[in-house]
């Protein structure tokens, strides 16, 4: 097998001719990006004329199979996007970008376990970034226990112009997609791993994200197949680890850190959630789950401590009602998220 690099990949792509074309996809200027990202994953972006996207989505599989056969390359992520908007009589421009090709940073929000407030954190971080004029999206990757639809205050199946392209929901200045929008709230998804992975990557690749500064992936709990596949096959800028201060939660947070390190995804920082409880009547702080455990863990691993978030009734009410606390500019909890956002902006040079 020849060495794998941009030139050898491009050479293989020059042998692929899309249905209906007379020239290969490189000559047709469909190949807009070939780049190796974290975890040695090759990220390939194919930009097609909008009117042809729905007819050529099979290119993704063709490219992956051809590169596997010719170069023995399996660490691939192929995204199909549209070059231009669809014809419309509307005077307003329509962003028709499909897939992740026009997203600057993809960040995994992970914990290694459930129940530490990862989804609530994701929602409020997204809203905080949006209010600072960043273009933000959320992918709810917890297929078995999706909650972002409820937390973002959206419901109902997303629109799809052709049965394949998915139009994300939009609320509080954030684009969002979740499997919870496509199934009844009380329905349990009894899917095996391959079905879950297929559904998840369809949500990622076929959603019309448009141009985003940041896409936050609300990761599933644990370090199983789904979390590992997302980490390996998605060009992540990094991961944020969420944990409560108590030792039992930190044990699982360490497992999440280990997983990302094994696939060469940088840890952007750690956040201590439920750091303290502040009484609404007397203002006294009580450290129910201990204190400072996450900060110590960050220091021990020479990682960035991004900040803390309290355990507060308003966070719970906001999550249940689909109105994140971070929408309230002068709420003290909002200031916690603003501090974390400032740290993140510095790390990513936003």
Overall spatial form: globular
The span between the termini is 40 Å
Amount of helix: 25-40%
What share of the residues does DSSP label as strand, in percent?
15-25%
Structural class: alpha/beta
SSE string: HEEHHEEHEHEEHEHEHEEHEHH
Number of strands: 12
Tally of separate helices = 11
Give unreliable regions as ranges. 84-95
Mean of residue pLDDT? 85
Ordered list of secondary-structure elements with their pairings:
Blueprint: H1 6-13, E1 31-36, E2 42-48, H2 50-53, H3 59-71, E3 76-82, E4 103-110, H4 118-131, E5 136-140, H5 148-151, E6 169-171, E7 174-178, H6 193-206, E8 212-218, H7 225-233, E9 238-243, H8 247-262, E10 267-278, E11 285-286, H9 293-300, E12 305-311, H10 313-321, H11 332-348
Parallel strand pairs: 2-3, 4-8, 4-9, 5-7, 5-8, 9-10, 10-12
Antiparallel strand pairs: 1-2, 6-7, 10-11
Helix pairs in contact: 1-3, 4-11, 6-7
């Amino acid at each position: 097998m020849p060495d794998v690099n941009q030139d050898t990949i491009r050479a293989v792509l020059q042998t692929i001719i899309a249905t209906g074309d007379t020239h290969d996809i490189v000559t047709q200027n469909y190949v807009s990006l070939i780049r190796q990202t974290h975890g040695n994953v090759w990220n390939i972006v194919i930009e097609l004329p909008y009117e042809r996207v729905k007819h050529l989505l099979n290119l993704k599989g063709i490219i992956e199979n051809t590169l596997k056969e010719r170069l023995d390359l399996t660490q691939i992520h192929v995204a199909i996007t549209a070059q231009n908007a669809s014809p419309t009589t509307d005077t307003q421009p329509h962003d028709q970008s499909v897939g992740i090709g026009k997203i600057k940073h993809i960040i995994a929000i992970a914990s290694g376990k459930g129940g530490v407030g990862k989804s609530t954190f994701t929602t409020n971080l997204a809203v905080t970034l949006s209010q600072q004029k960043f273009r933000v999206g959320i992918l709810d990757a917890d297929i078995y226990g999706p909650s972002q639809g409820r937390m973002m205050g959206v419901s109902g199946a997303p629109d799809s112009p052709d049965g394949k392209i998915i139009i994300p929901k939009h609320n509080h200045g954030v684009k969002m997609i979740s499997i919870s929008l496509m199934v009844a709230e009380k329905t349990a998804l009894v899917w095996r791993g391959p079905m879950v992975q297929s559904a998840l990557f369809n949500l990622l690749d076929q959603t019309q994200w448009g141009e985003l500064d940041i896409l936050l992936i609300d990761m599933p709990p644990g370090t199983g197949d789904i979390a590992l596949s997302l980490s390996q096959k998605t060009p992540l800028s990094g991961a944020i680890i969420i944990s409560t201060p108590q030792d039992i939660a930190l044990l699982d947070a360490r497992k999440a850190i280990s997983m990302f390190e094994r696939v060469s995804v940088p840890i952007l920082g750690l956040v201590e959630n439920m750091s303290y409880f502040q009484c609404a009547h007397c203002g006294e702080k009580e450290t129910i789950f201990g204190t400072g455990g996450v900060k110590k863990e960050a220091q021990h691993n020479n990682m960035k401590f991004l900040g803390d978030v309290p355990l507060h009734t308003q966070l719970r009410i906001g999550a249940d009602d689909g109105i994140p606390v971070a929408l309230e500019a002068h709420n003290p909890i909002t200031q916690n998220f603003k501090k974390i956002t400032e740290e993140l902006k510095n790390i990513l040079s936003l």
